[in-house]
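Example (one chain per record):
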Amino acid sequence: MIGGAHEPTVVLHLVWAPLGLAPLRAFADSYRDHDAGSEHELVIILNGLAADGSGSGSRAELLRELVGIPHRLIELSQSVLDLVAYRQAIAQLGARRVCVLNSHSRLRVDGWLSVLEQALARPGIGLVGASGSWASMRSRALFQLGLPSAYRRVWPDRAGTIAAFRALEEDRGGAPDGGGRMRGLYSAKALLDMTIGFSAFPAPHVRTNAFMAERELLQGAFVSQLRRKVDTHRLESGRDGLTRAVERAGLRVAVVDRAARSFEVEEWPQSNTFWQGDQEGLLVADNQTDSYEQGDFARRRLLSAYAWGERAAPSAPLG
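Predicted structure:
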C-alpha cells in the first residue's frame, strides 16, 4: 500500500506497430499466463500505426491479440519515441501510481505487479524497476574513441571489443546500451554526442523496459524535449534523467527481483536481473535480456562488463 488506502495501479504497455504482431502476442501470452497479484487497469498505448492502418501490424490484427484481456486503449495520432508515448499517456491518466512496460516486455512470474508495488511502498523509495544497470554511454563512447575510460580495465582489447559490439548490432539490428538502445555508435559525431549529458561509469539507472513510480513524479521528470533517440537515452540514463530526478527529490531507486527482494543501487549487480549470472532474478524479460540469455559466453562477458564493470559475473550458458 502507498499512502494509505490501496488505489489500483495503471499498467501502461506500449505497442509499437511497426514491430508487427510478435512482441504484442508474446506480451499478451505472458499477461494471460501470470496473474498480476494486484488490482490494476491495463492501458495499451498504440503507437506507430500507419495512417491507413496498414503495415506489418494493422490495427485490427494488433487488437485481435488482446481478445479476452480487459484493457483501455490510447491511440496516438502520430508516431513518437517510446518515452514520449509514455509521457502523452500519463498526461491522460488520473491514477496515482503507474507501471510502465515497453513493447518487448514479457512477464515471468505470478504476482509481478504486487512485487513492484511492495518495493515502491518501502519508505524513501520513489522509483522501482525490474532491472537496472550501471552502464555508461559516455564511458563507452570514450572507450571507442580511444580516450581514457573506466571500461579499459574490463575491455583490454579495444579493437576486439568494438568488433564484438558490431557483431551484436548486426545480429540484432542495433547495438545495445545499458538501457537497451544504442545504435550506430561508430561515427565520431555520434560518439561525441553520446558524451554529452551522460555521467562516466558507473552511471546507475533504472531501465525503462519495466518500472513503476507515482504519476506526479513521472510527470515532473518527463519534461525534457525528446526529439531524437539520444534524448530518450538521456532521460533514461543521463545526468538529468529519470533516476537522477528521483534522487534529487530526496528519494531512492531500487531494483526488485522475481522473489520480491529489493536491491539498493550498490546491490544491483548481485540481483542477477540484468546481464549477470543467468539472470535468474529477472521479473520482466525483454529483447535486451534475450540478447544476453541467448548469447554465448563471450557475448555474456561483453555485456556483463558493460553493465557492471569489474563487478561483472556472467554465467556460461547451459549446453
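Caption: Residues 235 and 242 are 6 Å apart (CA to CA).
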